């Protein structure tokens, strides 16, 4: 992921340098390091340490500062649950039959839920272990509680949203073959991207 982030940050730096060149006529050297990007990408974990002086512990897929905000198991897979505030927590509890939790001082506020996340997680898993993923996600969507399935790559490409967004491409290689690919994630109204051919074959443009 650091390779990807460094490339994205490089694009931002290049755009800023081009803007500076337009205004001043001066170019500049851009220094990008994978190491620097890794530190920058830690985001709120950096501030957790800088403010408290304590190194964050490993949390797996859970959010350090918000609960419940993590990957959770259901009967036929896993979901990511992203309950971001007390209001959403109340809606979540009502949707899954944990109506007593919002009034419990151990779970009434986000700081309390973070402090008691182990107990909270156990109660949530116990309440939902017999639920099907699709059934639970439908309930949470109806309650406006942020949640999403954890898909395999195959499930991801079969997802209606992936299909509707046209993320998969099949490109003609000029030799009668259709090569699978993935489109860039930018959708531009004025200058839409075009995909006319796949990556060049080995040595295809050597003479050019």
Question: In a nutshell, what does this entry contain?
Answer:
By secondary structure, the chain is α+β, with helices and mostly antiparallel strands. It has helices at about 1-25, 35-40, 45-50, 85-95, 110-115, 115-130, 135-140, 155-160, 160-165; strands at about 70-75, 75-80, 145-150, 170, 180.
Assigned CATH superfamily of the largest domain:
formyl-coa transferase, domain 3
Regions with little confidence, pLDDT below 50 for 5+ residues:
none
Strand pairing plus helix content: what structural class? alpha+beta
Q: N- to C-terminal separation? A: 33 Å
Q: In CATH terms, what is the fold-level topology of the largest domain?
A: formyl-coa transferase, domain 3
Structure characterization notes:
By secondary structure, the chain is an alpha+beta fold. It has nine helices and five strands, in the order αααββααααβααββ. It folds into three domains: 2-41, no CATH class; 69-150, 2-Layer Sandwich (formyl-coa transferase, domain 3); 152-208, no CATH class. The chain has helices spanning 2-24, 34-41, 44-52, 86-96, 110-115, 117-128, 133-142, 153-158, 160-164, and strands spanning 69-74, 77-82, 147-149, 168-172, 178-182. α1 (2-24) crosses α2 (34-41).
Keywords:
formyl-coa transferase, domain 3, 208 residues, 12% strand, single chain, 3 domains
Protein topology:
Blueprint: H1 2-24, H2 34-41, H3 44-52, E1 69-74, E2 77-82, H4 86-96, H5 110-115, H6 117-128, H7 133-142, E3 147-149, H8 153-158, H9 160-164, E4 168-172, E5 178-182
Antiparallel strand pairs: 1-2, 2-3, 4-5
Helix pairs in contact: 1-2
